[in-house]
Amino acid sequence: SVFERIDQVEDKVKAFVTQTREIALAKAKEVDDKIARGEEIGPLAGIPVVIKDNMCTRGILTTCSSKMLHNFVPPYDATVVKKLADAGAVMIGKSNLDEFAMGSSTENSRFFPTRNPWDLERVPGGSSGGSAAAVAADETVYSLGSDTGGSIRQPASFCGVVGLKPTYGLVSRYGLVAFASSLDQIGPFSKDVTDAAIILNTIAGHDPCDSTSVNYNVPDYTKSLVNDVRGIKIGIPKEYFVEGIQPDVRGLIEDAIKKFESLGAVCEEMSLPHTEYALPVYYILAPAEASSNLARYDGVGYGYRDESADDIVSMYMKTRSEGFGAEVKRRIMLGTYALSSGYYDAYYLKALKVRTLIKQDFDRAFEKYDVILTPTSPSTAFKFGEKSDNPMEMYLSDICTIAVNLAGIPGISIPCGLSQGLPVGLQLIGKPLGEETLFRVAYTYE
Ligand code: GLN
């Protein structure tokens, strides 16, 4: 049925970089055969999933929507891909993204933009736009994305689906093509909170292949799906309701707060005083890490290579000039600058210190509150081209999601209504490894 649906809508939505129908049908048959033999099947057996094209899939193209990796076929699976396969999941394809996950609209894909299924003139958000759109358009049951500064939650909000960025380290990053390693985290897009909990059950857990993965006894998250928020303390940070927020978005978030109060939660305005520094800190640290991570694309080992150069240095230069798009180059230049001698202390080190202050805001808040509630994005999905000429404008669309990555804590976006026919997302932020509370609160709201 998902293939029929893909045949109907994919021409318009363009969520996929690669479809893997034959492999999927073979895998589905395997599951069927197991059932026929009366063997046990995994919790996700037979259910279609789409994987963002920055996670390695053995024998299947993994492009990061970049010319640089247009021909890259990994020899191994990312840990999440392996875990899903072991649970019986059926991968039906790889989804489009902003090149190397840098962007907020999927317009930075080197192949084509993905469209928002709610309004094809609008972006699906980004960078995991393909994964969000595929779920919203019913081309798949769920998908995986990655979130470095909002790339799961913001597209989830634009496309009216659930998107979870887990605690840093809860889900292994092994096989996720690195953008900013201290911020990147993999998580699910799903149609509801229950599915998100089931998926997290499968993908979470310690992985010896990822040295930043936490040693933690992963609970059964479906146990948190209880309809009860009585006595839960919800903090509403005033810094998230200032300039630029669309009046409808504010209105729907206020409605959600009222709903939580009527369900017995205690909602209270509070402050996260260093919020205004999150965006500048992110745009120093993320490009710094990216400039280092992306140094490996030199045309030698794998991926795109310019064949016209006569010597190795011009081969490097031509390969990187042509292989990377404008936004990726901008990040590499910003990052290299921030890390260079003479600027390192002024920018990089300073940003690290302010990152700690941002983290401490949350630590203090969680002494008092169980969760923090904000809009996921100040606006609904915008039109193509509206922000693509102005990087600063584009960067501002992650203003509500970025601090969560800097602090390494979990955040979930759930739909909370429509504004002029477009979905609005509500973000719930939890303490480190506080996914259970997030699920409970989100489930009760839903
Ligand atoms: N939009 C942000 C950026 O461009 C976040 C991207 C992400 O989370 N991968 O960096």
Automatic annotation (TrEMBL):
GO terms of biological process kind: translation
Organism (species): Thermincola potens (strain JR)
One GO CC term on file: glutamyl-tRNA(Gln) amidotransferase complex
Catalysed reaction, written as an equation: L-glutamyl-tRNA(Gln) + L-glutamine + ATP + H2O = L-glutaminyl-tRNA(Gln) + L-glutamate + ADP + phosphate + H(+)
Protein family (similarity comment): Belongs to the amidase family. GatA subfamily.
Complex formation: Heterotrimer of A, B and C subunits.
Domain of life (superkingdom): Bacteria
EC number of the protein: 6.3.5.7
Protein function: Allows the formation of correctly charged Gln-tRNA(Gln) through the transamidation of misacylated Glu-tRNA(Gln) in organisms which lack glutaminyl-tRNA synthetase. The reaction takes place in the presence of glutamine and ATP through an activated gamma-phospho-Glu-tRNA(Gln).
Annotated HAMAP family: GatA
Active site: 52, 127, 151
Matches recorded under InterPro entries: Amidase, Amidase_CS, Amidase_dom, AS_sf, GatA
Name the record gives this protein: Glutamyl-tRNA(Gln) amidotransferase subunit A
A single MF term (Gene Ontology): glutaminyl-tRNA synthase (glutamine-hydrolyzing) activity
Residue ranges occupied by any Amidase domain in the UniProt entry: 1-438
Matches recorded under NCBIfam families: gatA (TIGR00132)
